[in-house]
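Incident review: delayed structure delivery

Summary: a single-chain prediction request sat in the queue longer than the usual turnaround. Root cause was a stuck worker, restarted by the on-call engineer. No data loss occurred. The affected request and its eventual output are reproduced below so the record is complete for anyone auditing the incident later.

Affected input:
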Amino acid sequence: MNKVFLIMLGGSIGALSRYYLSGIINKAGNSLFPIGTLAVNILGCFIIGFLWGMLNWKIEILPEAKVFIFIGFLGAFTTFSSYALESYNMFYEGEIKYAVLNILYNNIFGISAVIFGSMLWRTIVKVFK
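Output delivered after worker restart:
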């Protein structure tokens, strides 16, 4: 299957997933802080860490699936461009506290989620070995 089509399809699904999930979370949070973007970034980082852990254990997936998942779906889902714009806007509007928290939370929790996802995969592999 054509890589460009797979990226478009995965990207469409990822972007729509991000849009709806972050919207639901933002509405529930009812705050000036963009908690929906933070949650989607952490979830996306966890998923990429978990899947990367699978690939490091020699789990084979089709190259087309890698393109669809990593470039298409997760590329559109993890929202770091939205995160950067929201951080910029908070700085620009004088909301320094929220801007700094947004940057710290997304980076600290995002990297932690990648590590946790990879560790979870390794634990699952050990349990079922």
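Verification: The radius of gyration is 16 Å.
Action items: add queue-age alerting; document worker restart procedure.
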